[in-house]
Task: structure prediction
Amino acid sequence: MPTISMFFGIIIRMYYALKEHGPPHIHVYFQDNVAVMNIRDCELTKGVLPAKQRRLISAWIEIHREELLSNRKLCQNGKKPFKIQPLR
Result:
């Protein structure tokens, strides 16, 4: 699962395989926390994240939603996603 962005100790990854299942989402790693967040509505669908990091990731998703959805299409076709600028 390639890393597509990193910022403030948060690692964002996107799994890529043919016809990836479920709604568009990202995998988030922060310290000992692992979570999955929906790209369309920024909802936490699996795992736990501290509130501050969840807000940062939600802001990042809002800024980069179109890029994330483009990456999702690449992933569904078995192609590696591209890197996305971190939150600054």
